[in-house]
Amino acid sequence: MSNLEESVRQRLGWRAALVVAAVIVGTFPWNAAPSSLFGVVPIFIWCFLAGSRKAGVTVGSILLALLVWFVVPRGLGWSGPLVPSEVEVYWLYPMIAAVVCLPALRRVWTGVLGLVTMIMAGFLAAAVVLIGQLEAKPGDEGVLPGPAGLRMAEGSGHCGSGNCSREVIATGDRAPDVMREHLESRGFTVRTPARLCRATGLVFTHEVCVEPKKISSDAVEVTWYVN
């Protein structure tokens, strides 16, 4: 291997590994539509700003660990005040990432410009997402994909009074019980006998509520909305 090839491998190897790892984390859970790919942006920018391999790998590993925290617990169905919400991946994660990157910058002014641009892009992306959610139906929000063994038929949903909802009819053996167990495994807890909710968010709470309505012993209608 020539010196040039070795130099290229050393310069690009750790960068490529970090970006690939970030993409894998950002698309979690892998059985649903990716909603956290923006989390790759801070790591991608850091790969260009890093002045040395040691600093690049050290800070990059911290950013990757933070991305895991911002994405994986929610993907696993966890909830609570220590579980970041989806929109916080756009604005809060870049802000924390900038604080982590700042002390390790070699070219300060260029680096600061890159970090400020990253934060502004994050706030812009968060604003676009929030505006798009105002009159839009909620996402899957842990309700879908449904549990294995049940057949899911989605309805047309409903919008009105500044809020929108989605509904599915799940059919199969013991569908009402199986669906409730599925929701509880995704972090939903009972608020009233007819409603389960889960909340995420470090700074601002994002709460989703589900209302399962039993149709028969083998069918249940599930409606969910952002509270």
Please explain how this structure is put together.
Keywords: Membrane, Transmembrane, Transmembrane helix. The chain crosses the membrane at residues 12-30, 36-52, 59-77, 89-105, 112-132. The chain has 227 residues and is α+β, with helices and mostly antiparallel strands. The protein has 2 domains: 3-134, no CATH class; 151-226, no CATH class. It contains 6 helices and 7 strands. Helix 2 packs antiparallel against helix 3 (53-75) and helix 3 (53-75) packs antiparallel against helix 4. The longest helix has 27 residues, at 108-134. The chain starts with a helix and ends with a strand.
Succession of helices and strands = HHHHHEEEHEEEE
Label the structural class: alpha+beta
Number of domains: 2
Helix fraction bin: 40-55%
Average pLDDT reading:
90
Number of strands: 7
Pick out the low-confidence regions: none
Transmembrane segments: 12-30, 36-52, 59-77, 89-105, 112-132
Keywords: Membrane, Transmembrane, Transmembrane helix
Strand and helix layout:
Elements: H1 3-26, H2 40-49, H3 53-75, H4 88-101, H5 108-134, E1 151-154, E2 158-160, E3 163-171, H6 175-185, E4 189-192, E5 195-200, E6 206-216, E7 219-226
Brief account:
By secondary structure, this protein is α+β, with helices and mostly antiparallel strands. The protein has six helices and seven strands, in the order αααααβββαββββ.
Feature tags:
alpha+beta, about 230 residues, 6 helices, single chain, 7-stranded antiparallel β-sheet
